[in-house]
Amino acid sequence: MEYSPILHSLHVVPSSHVKNKLFVFFIMLSLWVYMIYCCVGYCSTMPNLAYGSVNRHENDAEVDNHQESSLGASRDLLNNENDVDSRGEEWDEIRGEAKALDDNAMSGFLNESESKKLPQAIIIGVKKGGTRALLEFLRLHPDIRAVGAEPHFFDRNYDKGLEWYRELMPKSSEGQLTMEKTPSYYVTKEVPARIYTMSKDTKLIVVVRDPVTRAISDYTQTRSKKPEIPSFENLTFKNMSAGLIDTTWSAVQIGMYAKHLERWLQFFPMEQLLFVSGERLISDPAGEMARVQDFLRLRRVVTEKHFHFNPAKGFPCLKRPEGNSKPHCLGKTKGRTHPNIDPEVVQRLRDFYKPFNSKFYQMTGHDFGWD
């Protein structure tokens, strides 16, 4: 048969064309798989938005309505399931701060040695003490990986198991510390035993604040969402004329720090707990952060160069130590103006808390100067 260049070209060209298509297809498939891998690695370091949307109403409530504390049933007129900082507001903060401040969110997302670990340290309290500020300050540290949303595992989701809890954590590499914060842990009676069961070596951080100011801040937060609630004065007393404080109201109950601490000391030695002053976290954030980093046995990376005091908001904002970037402040839900409270009610509350404060100072070995 006579050789025909035309027939030969007709046979070869389709074969070459198919091979080229297959080659391009495999290249694109590889790139697609690579991009999915990268996204999964990065997203694991960010707050779990799906979890947040399901539990939007549970963000900061301190005492579960369906539980009783060791101090008696909590009258949660202000702290029911709807009485929380809006998770939608907090997600804006968390997403923005994670992008602007956590330079390590992407570092090592291709590192196959990274994995999700149960937390070695937990911020366990207290509500309206400054826990969000402390968490965001800590997230500046390259050796800390912290979940942004509050898991509420040990007080509300314990039946879901430790593997469910582990999956909420960000990926971390060897040498990095995994953390979370849920302020209601400190006042929930079942929590100390549950954390001890997970790990008896867990480091625990409690951010405390003048209990009177804390209670007013708690009330202020709720009133911003429920303007129709009774006055602070009416809620404070069982009987106003008799001056009898209502200790079943969680806003009052949370500030009885010594009572709650007794329960924790049944499981953990005092050296595993660090008590951070909410007031000093505002007036001297670098000083308090030095204490926290020492407690966690971390390098003192977060220092005064990371803070800029904002007089309008009344608390420090975060900034990058290098460059001239604008300081990044916590969101609009922080730093609300407190209502004017009857001075006599404030004084009666101070008198009520005084013995609790004195005992707390003695137990912790630190005078917080609230009296």
TrEMBL record:
Transmembrane segments: 22-43
UniProt cross-references to InterPro entries, sorted A to Z: NST/OST (IPR037359), P-loop_NTPase (IPR027417), Sulfotransferase_dom (IPR000863)
Gene3D superfamilies assigned: P-loop containing nucleotide triphosphate hydrolases
Chloroplast recorded as keyword: no
EC number assigned by the record: 2.8.2.-
Disulfide bonds: 317-329
Domain Sulfotransferase: 119-358
Keyword set, alphabetical order: Disulfide bond, Glycoprotein, Golgi apparatus, Membrane, Signal-anchor, Transferase, Transmembrane, Transmembrane helix
Membrane topology term: Single-pass type II membrane protein
Entry similarity comment: Belongs to the sulfotransferase 1 family.
Protein's UniProt name: Sulfotransferase
